[in-house]
């Protein structure tokens, strides 16, 4: 029995307890046990083969693992159908469960991260434990608040039937903001439908080249406070002119960002600062977001124009390179030592071939662009060893609507190399990943 099969068996044998606290504590203990077992249990032969291939194409570089979270109920029901990030890591949602007591409904999702690559020196114990503890604490405190509310309601003349009509629900969940070759950005949320006073959200932004938490200073530079404040004020003025309503400064409106301001990283690799409901605008506006760039909007437009101008320099040579690449649809004409030796134009040219093959649902063309063995995250598929086996899957199975939409919307103009390669995705899990294999570019993973 493989490691993943053992994980699935343990998952299937979990018994849902009646009490919330028992459930959360059980999940924490499971996490600790799993982390201990990872040191004893090895990956299956097929996973080892994939890892050896990726280690070779990265010139024996240390493989970076990235934590990713998925809130889909599919992951709570199908533990054997887990997404892969660049073929290096899997995301396992322990349980998407619901409980109810005294007409207080609780819905909690508790994820953890499972590494496929071994001996990287990177551990995820701390972030996994922090998330589990956060879920545990919020859920317990929220249940206590709801119970106190129920007691007060009944003591002041309310009936149990009237209480049931309140439909009290406590929710703890997760949302991925970006999952790419550069960053992983996600938010952990807790909410109670009967009050906004205790809602919480915690944003996590990870640099996938270092495994470190990313700060606004890392993204924007040492003058990030002044830059962000100026940008937000400009955007507020523009949005007010367009009809939106914001609190004035004397009413508690925006007065500058704080050191612990919340933000995530979007698909353009830019920080997006988030203000909670009621924080700087009426509650009807919900959460308020501001994307921040270096300089003001006009300056950002100039930067974009300059970048676009840079890409069209030496058009004759660029046209010759494109024509030469078209003659060999499988690989680029250059030999590369690793992913970091691939320039942005070469990566973009190869990505365009993949996008074209996907748009035409041409499985043969996609196979020609693939380095085998390749990970294919379809149910019951996993690793495909040969081109012949890949073609047997059929175009209808490989080209799912979610995959096609993600690939079509993917930004391939701003590729940054990573150990895992180059992701073609609009930020969702579904996407196609490629990188250097045996000196040339090839697809090394298809995620769903």
Short description:
Helices cover about 40% and strands about 25% of the residues. The protein has about 450 residues and is α+β, with helices and mostly antiparallel strands.
List the helices and strands and how they pair.
Blueprint: H1 3-12, H2 20-38, H3 45-57, H4 74-77, E1 84-85, E2 89-101, E3 104-115, H5 125-155, H6 160-164, E4 168-179, E5 183-192, E6 195-207, H7 216-220, H8 224-241, E7 262-265, E8 271-275, E9 288-291, H9 297-311, H10 315-327, H11 344-359, H12 363-368, E10 370-376, E11 382-384, H13 387-392, H14 395-398, H15 401-409, E12 422-424, E13 431-437, E14 440-447
Parallel strand pairs: 3-4, 10-14
Antiparallel strand pairs: 1-2, 2-3, 4-5, 5-6, 7-8, 8-9, 10-11, 12-13, 13-14
Structure description:
It is a single chain. Mean pLDDT is 74; it is low at 14-28, 40-91 and 296-333. The protein is built from 15 helices and 14 strands. The relative contact order is 0.11. The strands form 3 sheets. It has a 6-stranded mixed sheet with strand order 1-2-3-4-5-6. Helices cover 39% and strands 23% of the residues. It has helices spanning 3-12, 20-38, 45-57, 74-77, 125-155, 160-164, 216-220, 224-241, 297-311, 315-327, 344-359, 363-368, 387-392, 395-398, 401-409; strands spanning 84-85, 89-101, 104-115, 168-179, 183-192, 195-207, 262-265, 271-275, 288-291, 370-376, 382-384, 422-424, 431-437, 440-447. The protein is α+β, with helices and mostly antiparallel strands. β1 and β2 (89-101) form a beta hairpin.
């Amino acid at each position: 029995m493989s490691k993943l099969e053992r994980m699935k068996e343990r998952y299937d044998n979990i018994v849902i307890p009646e009490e919330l606290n028992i459930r959360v504590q059980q999940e924490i203990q499971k996490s600790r046990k799993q982390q201990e077992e990872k040191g004893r249990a090895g990956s299956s032969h097929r996973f080892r083969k994939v890892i050896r291939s990726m280690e070779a194409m990265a010139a024996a570089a240390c493989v970076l693992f990235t934590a990713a979270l998925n809130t889909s109920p599919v992951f709570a029901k199908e533990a054997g159908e887990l997404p892969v990030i660049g073929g290096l890591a899997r995301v396992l949602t322990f349980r998407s469960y619901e409980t109810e007591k005294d007409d207080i409904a609780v819905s909690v999702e508790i994820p953890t991260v499972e590494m496929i690559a071994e001996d990287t020196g990177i551990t995820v114990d701390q972030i996994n434990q922090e998330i589990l503890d956060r879920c545990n604490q919020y859920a317990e405190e929220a249940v206590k608040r709801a119970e106190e509310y129920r007691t007060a309601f009944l003591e002041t003349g309310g009936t149990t039937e009237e209480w049931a009509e309140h439909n009290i629900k406590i929710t703890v969940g997760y949302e991925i903001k970006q999952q790419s070759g550069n960053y992983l950005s996600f938010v952990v949320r807790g909410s109670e439908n009967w009050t906004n006073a205790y809602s919480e959200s915690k944003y996590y932004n990870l640099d996938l080249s270092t495994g470190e938490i990313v700060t606004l200073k890392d993204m924007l530079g040492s003058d990030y406070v002044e830059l962000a404040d100026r940008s937000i004020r400009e955007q507020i003025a523009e949005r007010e002119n367009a009809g939106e309503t914001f609190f004035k400064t004397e009413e508690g409106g925006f007065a500058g960002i704080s050191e612990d301001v919340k933000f995530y990283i979007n698909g353009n690799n830019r920080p997006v600062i988030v203000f909670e409901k009621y924080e700087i605008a009426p509650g009807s506006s919900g959460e308020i977001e501001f994307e921040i760039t270096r300089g003001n909007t006009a300056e950002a437009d100039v930067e974009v124009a300059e970048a676009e101008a840079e890409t069209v320099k030496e058009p004759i040579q660029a046209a010759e390179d494109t024509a030469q690449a078209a003659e060999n649809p499988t690989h680029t004409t250059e030999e590369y030592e690793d992913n970091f030796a691939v320039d942005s134009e070469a990566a973009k040219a190869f990505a365009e071939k993949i996008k074209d093959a996907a748009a035409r649902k041409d499985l043969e063309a996609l196979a020609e662009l693939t380095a085998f063995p390749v990970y294919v995250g379809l149910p019951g598929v996993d690793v495909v060893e040969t081109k012949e086996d890949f073609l047997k899957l059929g175009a209808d199975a490989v080209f799912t609507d979610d995959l096609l939409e993600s690939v079509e919307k993917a930004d391939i103009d701003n590729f940054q190399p990573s150990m895992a390669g180059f992701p073609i995705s609009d930020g969702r899990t579904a996407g196609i990943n490629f990188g250097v294999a045996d000196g040339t570019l090839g697809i090394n993973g298809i995620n769903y």
